[in-house]
């Protein structure tokens, strides 16, 4: 990227844009969404009066924060849920996420824990981590990659599926959401998919060949992660076998191998931020949805109540804001090397 552009970004900090009030209301295609899954019936709050069949999201500015509230129902068709490969039914949620309007690059990157990386602008969480571990042991340090081709999580054509809580979420490119956002049919477009928990915007994998020039041709951006060479540790310490991408830990960042940094983002101009901003990209390759924050993730994305995937029948009800925090699971990555 041109040095002049870098300097301008650093001097200006994060460039403004989207400073006005934004209100987005989307209607879903109206699939059945009567929640009878764990935890979805037990909380009544400001969203409980809404029809569960209406996908609904509002994005507004409150002080220094962008606030995204939604019932989590996608505004596009989904796979069949419950279905043969996913027993859960989509139900209305009461998501409330908050991100800084003017996000800041932190001194150090922060690995994603078991909580959403961000939220799409239709109010559906971008939540790449699967609660599937080697030997079902989340402390093993070996986590199956949802899109690694081994664990069948019943993902639909938008790389989405449903947690036991009824929460629909994406593990990769939300294809049908992109269709709803696209204005063109012929030309590749850079589309604002949503916001990361640290406030930086998230785009699809089309970007400018010169990150600093809105007029430069578009190209498909690729991640800089590659499958490690060699064998996994075996015995007690690891599953053994050749690295093939099925585990999150099979992947390593190789600087310069692709277009993006270890957080799967870069600094560049975007339609919404023509002066340039750090932004993330959802790629067709690992990590798909990023797993490392350039800024500081907001508390509102931290998981309250039981972790996803386990079910926890008879367990504690899903907490609301200020509810019980789950104990922290091991991070997705070993500490980042700088
Ligand atoms: Zn999932």
Automatic annotation (TrEMBL):
Region annotated Disordered, chain positions: 297-338
Ranges annotated as biased composition (Pro residues): 305-316, 326-338
Domain YHYH as annotated: residue spans: 97-295
InterPro entries per UniProt: YHYH_dom
Membrane-traversing stretches: none
Protein name, UniProt field: YHYH domain-containing protein
The species this protein was found in: Stieleria varia
